[in-house]
Amino acid sequence: MEQSAGKPAYIPRHLQASLELALKDTPVVCLLGPRQCGKSTLARHQAPDRVFISLDDARYLDLARTDPIGFVSELPDFVTIDEIQRAPELILAIKHSVDLDRRAGRFLLTGSANLLQLPRLADSLAGRMECLYLQPFSAAEQELAQGRFLEMWMRAQLSPKFVGSSMPPKPSSLPQRLAAGGYPEALARPPERARQWLRQYLRSIIERDIHDVGQVKDGNDLARLSELLAHRTGTLLNVSQLANALGHSRATVERHLAILEKLFLIRTLPAWHRNVGKRLIKSPKIHICDSGVAATLSDLQAHHWVQERERFGHLLESFIVQQLVAQAGATQADLRFWHYRDRDQVEVDCVITRGRKVWGVEVKAARSVTTSDTRGLHRLAEIAGSDFQGGIVFYDGESILPVANETFLAVPISNLWEL
To answer: Are 80 and 53 in contact (CB under 8 A)?
Structure first.
């Protein structure tokens, strides 16, 4: 990438096209995602002529909280308001303004907390607002690729492709990629400095943002919970076990988990079952959203790849779920993500659904795949029946290969950032 004036060139975001469309037909568009993932940069790039107001500025924040109607009435017709979750009082004032003037694209909001999970805000702008979710840089965005893997797979455009080579395999690039994560500021630093930035990043969020989304007596409790979750990323969520480890009640831990999820630090994948009601009684899987954060909190570094293969395996699962979620947000927003596990301990790392259609994803850190790696996919296909659309096993190889039957493919993990 070219650079100018000492600053890195703007890196295109895959969500950009969806943001442009939303601004053309919706009065209020809200760009949501974790702090420092690039929301403000995308908003400024997409609408450079708008007045940009950040509620991290104490002057604006105080006025927005004390006189929200007056604040909104003085704004220009088209405006960007950054970190809207800091002044939820503005939402009703924005609603009133939009009801008087419903032109598309009037308000572009950004938020570092999930507004749809905040009770005061969830219903206020119903029918007037579209929410888009920006993730930290995906691997495809980092490589300036189109990020079309998920779309191609959903459209059955993937087919076996053998890549031959007379050279010995190169060392895997996965350890470095997993440890780096996707936050722009961390990616701009060497590994040790990146880890320091990520530690400071989490500390800053806990000290500054948690009170915008929930009541927490001691931020250290959230920091300890985050560390425990980092060691458990890609595993079943056991709230009772966490409560025992932290010395808190189950209700307290559940409240803290909800806060971390509202701040886009963790993601829970509910359990999938053909019977919708039974999904609710199965344990969800927990994922730290950014692999760099998880690696830093659990003290995993790239050179631990060999001796810590099991822990890296769980981290890799969280990483791939994050890549798929990011690609879905840009091109397939109606997809839902789950995991599957039954009483026989047969599991599928990630289940993707659209309506009744079902796809399955398994994740392997190995460089080869065997038919036994499709055991969970076979079970999922059996239960889903005619709704099953296909399954893949991600692995650290180079060829797209059929596994067991034409329904299952072994797919190189690198396809996530090469297509």
So the answer is: yes
